[in-house]
Write a structure and sequence with these properties.
Keywords: Membrane, Transmembrane, Transmembrane helix
Structural class: mainly alpha
Number of helices: 4
Helix content: over 70%
Order of helices and strands: HHHH
Radius of gyration: 16 Å
Distance between the termini: 33 Å
Number of domains: 1
Strand content: under 5%
């Protein structure tokens, strides 16, 4: 799930960055941007953050039973970028 969360996050950010050459969606045109964000970007980001929280919850739940420390740190490390990006976006919305 951690690899899926990280992969979905990277894919969504890549497609969002190159949406004009891929889908001919111009960055300043509101109807196309809204449709793209509502139909693709938001669901993929929600899926990435849900998987990230699930991985962190399972890792904390099984902290004592899993003996491999590297496995725990890799799982948490792959889940943190999705949570960090969402936190940054939420803070950016409310500060501006």
């Amino acid at each position: 799930m951690a690899f899926a969360s990280f992969g979905i996050l990277i894919f969504a950010l890549f497609v969002n960055e190159f949406r004009e050459p891929l889908f001919r969606i111009k960055k300043g045109y509101a109807p196309h941007n809204f449709g793209f964000n509502f139909m693709f970007f938001l669901p993929s980001m929600l899926m990435a953050i849900a998987l990230g929280f699930t991985v962190i919850g399972r890792t904390i739940k099984h902290w004592k039973t899993w003996t491999d420390v590297n496995k725990k740190l890799i799982l948490i490390g792959l889940s943190i970028p999705a949570i960090g990006i969402w936190t940054f976006m939420i803070v950016k919305i409310f500060i501006n």
